[in-house]
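Bump. Still looking for ABC transporter ATP-binding protein structure tokens.
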Amino acid sequence: MLVVENVSKQYGNFQVLNSIQLEFQNGIYGLLAPNGAGKTTLIKMLATLMFPTKGEILYNGTNIVHLDDKYRDVLGYLPQHFGYYKNYSPEKYLFYLAALKGLNKSTAKQRIKELLTLVGLEDVRHKKMKKFSGGMIQRVGIAQAMLNDPKILILDEPTAGLDPKERSRFRKILTSLARDRIIILSTHIVSDVESIANQIIMMKDKKILYKDTVADISNQLKGMLFETQVSLTEGDQFRANYQIIGERQERGKLFFRFVAEQKQDESWIEISPTLEDVFLHVYEDDQTLAGSM
Ligand SMILES: Nc1ncnc2c1ncn2[C@@H]1O[C@H](COP(=O)(O)OP(=O)(O)OP(=O)(O)O)[C@@H](O)[C@H]1O
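Sorry for the wait, here they are.
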């Protein structure tokens, strides 16, 4: 078990995280927040690339800093921007990293074969990576993070720049890896984690806002989410009165999806909230969100 125990992080006087408390068991955790909320900072601390200003991170009861190499032996990490050699093939690159990680040759051979199959790159294993799409490169990234068969796999915004098909493929790979390890995946895109994460962690104002299942977080808006239609001339007034989650124009009318404390009009239709609704609701005033969508 991995435990983040009362962790705070400051860069100089600038506080990014304040008293973070988290526990991870095997399964997929989606770390979901707009850019700038501190996801990378938390992930870098989990990967021992940065250290908490206060608090500690424990793996099976021992501070990961003290575990040192023993911790890195069970850790797989895919950073936001991972460095690969464009002129290498994925196979050559993975052999190179396996050697750096101290895997013996026959173990490496077997493992690389399995991993290239897992990520669907066996057919192009000898092709130079400079010809690869963003999705293929990210799959090489997963393979490199999985070389040591880690108990903890951490991926920082792994789907950035991928198209929907590649995202879907990525999700399937992660699901297949989740059975007997902790997977922590950071993203600002709800659909990346909605269908695969056992738990979603949402951060706001330097703190953990929610750590719960998709269903339980979605229920935060239960009874408060509605749809209705109004005339075009009433649109501005309606927007001023309610928090709008979505709107569209159709047949000369405005259709709003919006949040209100309770049903105030017979014409309003209560709808089941999704994780995306809660995300938009929670980060409505968040300046960082505008740049991330
Ligand atoms: N080395 C640093 N020195 C000072 N401020 C930093 C440093 N690294 C990050 N920050 C600031 O800390 C805040 C959180 O950054 P962080 O990268 O952890 O956010 P994030 O949620 O991962 O966003 P992104 O996905 O854009 O990286 C941001 O305001 C960022 O500008």
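The chain has a mean pLDDT of 92.

Edit: fixed formatting.
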